[in-house]
Design goal:
The chain has helices spanning about 35-45, 55-70, 85-100, 120-145, 160-165, 170-190, 205-215, 220-225, 240-245; strands at about 25-30, 50-55, 75-80, 105, 150-155, 195-200, 260. It is an alpha/beta fold. It has a seven-stranded parallel β-sheet, with helices on both faces. The longest helix has 22 residues, at about 120-145. The two termini are about 30 Å apart. GO terms for molecular function: oxidoreductase activity, acting on CH-OH group of donors. It comes from Planococcus halotolerans.
């Protein structure tokens, strides 16, 4: 059974090294799951953090409270980042709050499984691509004039961009677009010493899983992640060191790459 007991806001055991002292990060999807854990880890590493979220105000407040509990500094921005105007707003909000932007983490996600391609509506296709692929590009475009040498862009895609998923056709496609744009941006920005990398998680136990797969599979808590070699899903806290690594200024010769964190579910990249 997937471990549902982990609290993303409890990173008391996380050992920070000050890798992100003096940095300012924007992290989308920061009200739960991976984004929440990464925001707290970044704050413990010394970064000031702005989290973007759409509707989960309670989760956003939990993230901010956890960061403040550890002595960090963070603010929340509510908006639909699938719209370019909202991406411009979060960038301006960050600049007004902290005066700079050094790290952009595009982590917001949405998935709605359908057992037949015939059931994927135009509206669902657009929403999926807006939240995953469009939002990533819009936020990078809005932030880019304010980034400088040594800045980092980190994009959360999915294992499904590489292997596909029969019930997540639109989601897999949107993540594939993220992978292609990440590599293209990396080629364009490498001479400016702005690294663009990503992480492609496998099965990670987050609120999104029960929210989207619960109707299709009432036993999702028992079944989720059991098909990977590790025999279990990952937890968000197991990914955060990779996000810190990709944001670390000392990681200066890696760009256009994806880290595959999936419990041993190997694939060709």
């Amino acid at each position: 059974m997937a471990d549902k007991s982990f609290d993303n806001t409890d990173l008391a055991d996380y050992k920070a090294s000050g890798a992100l002292e003096g940095k300012v990060a924007i992290i989308t999807g920061g009200s739960s799951g991976i984004g929440q854990a990464v925001a707290i880890a970044y704050a413990k590493e010394g970064a000031k953090v702005v989290i973007g979220y759409k509707g989960n105000e309670e989760g956003a407040n939990s993230t901010i409270k956890a960061i403040e509990k550890y002595g960090g500094d963070a603010k929340a921005f509510q908006g639909d980042l699938g719209k370019s105007a909202e991406c411009e707003k979060i960038v301006q909000f960050t600049l007004e709050s902290y005066g700079q932007i050094d790290i952009v983490v595009n982590n917001a996600g949405y998935q709605y499984p359908q057992t037949s391609p015939l059931d994927i509506t135009d509206e669902q296709m657009l929403k999926t691509f807006e939240i995953k692929a469009f939002a990533m590009f819009y936020l990078v475009r809005a932030a880019l004039p304010h980034l400088k040498r040594g800045s980092r862009i980190i994009n959360t895609a999915s294992i499904n961009a590489y292997r596909g998923h029969s019930d997540l056709i639109d989601y897999s496609g949107a993540n594939g677009a993220m992978v292609a744009m990440t590599r293209s941006l990396a080629r364009r920005l490498v001479r400016e010493e702005i690294a663009v990398n990503g992480i492609a998680p496998g099965p990670i136990w987050t609120p999104l899983i029960t929210k989207t797969f619960g109707d299709l599979n009432p036993n999702v808590a028992d079944d989720f992640g059991e098909d990977v070699p590790a025999g279990r899903p990952g937890q968000p806290f197991e990914l955060v060191k990779a996000y810190v690594f990709l944001a670390d200024p000392q990681n200066s010769y890696m760009t256009g790459q994806f880290l595959h964190m999936n419990g041993g579910d190997y694939m060709s990249t």
